[in-house]
Amino acid sequence: QSHAVTERLLNIELGQILGSYIPPEPLVFLSGIGMVLTAVALILGYRTKQAALVLILILIPITVTVQTQGMHTLGPLFKNIGLLGGLIYFSANGSCPYSLDQKFQLQKA
Predict the structure, then answer these.
(1) Residue-wise burial string across 61-90, b where 16 or more C-beta atoms lie within 10 A, e elsewhere
(2) Which secondary structure element, helix H or strand E, spans residue 11, and what is its range?
(3) Which of 42, 44, 23, 24 is nearest to 34 (CA)?
(4) How large is the angle between the packed helices 24-44 and 13-21, nearest 10 degrees?
(5) Considering only CA atoms, which of 38, 26, 25, 22 is closest in space to residue 87?
(6) Model pLDDT, residue 2
(7) pLDDT for res 5
(8) Is the confidence at residue 15, as pLDDT, over 70?
(9) In this structure, are residues 58 and 83 in contact, taking their beta carbons and an 8 Å threshold?
(10) Residue 108 clears pLDDT 70, i.e. is over it
(11) Cα torsion through 23, 27, 28, 33, rounded to 10
(12) Contact at 8 Å (CB) between 101 and 48?
């Protein structure tokens, strides 16, 4: 699966440019690990603002390089734009009252 992703990345002009600086295999692996870890933190409400910002920083380059390749990528492009909107909300407002952030904040008070 990751081989197909790296091949797709290298078939894109911006991906080729990026691939000349950083090997694509570790880049795809690290972005996947980063997305999973920060998504779990976001779901649990742990360091919500920071997790949302990290996800934004991962999602923007993916959206710009992979999702702007024509009509066949419009669905994933709009999905990523919607996700970015939600992440911007969480990065600005933080977590809900039932999150780990709120629990730890109440214990400090």
Answers:
(1) eebebbbebeeeeeeebeebeeebeebeeb
(2) none
(3) 42
(4) 100
(5) 38
(6) 54
(7) 65
(8) no
(9) no
(10) no
(11) 150
(12) yes
What SS3 state is found at 12?
Answer: coil
Confidence of residue 4 (pLDDT cuts 50, 70, 90): low
Q: Which of 28, 32, 30, 29 is nearest to 9 (CA)?
A: 28
Helix (H, G, I), strand (E, B) or coil at 78: helix
- The number of angstroms, rounded, from the C-alpha of 9 to the middle of its chain's C-alpha atoms is 16
Tokens of 32: 């996947």
Name residue 41's amino acid.
A
Q: Convert the pLDDT of each residue in 37-56 to its tens digit.
A: 999 999 999 999 999 999 99
Location of structure tokens 């933080």 = 94
What average pLDDT score do residues 70-86 get?
A: 87
Spell out where 1-109 has E strands: none
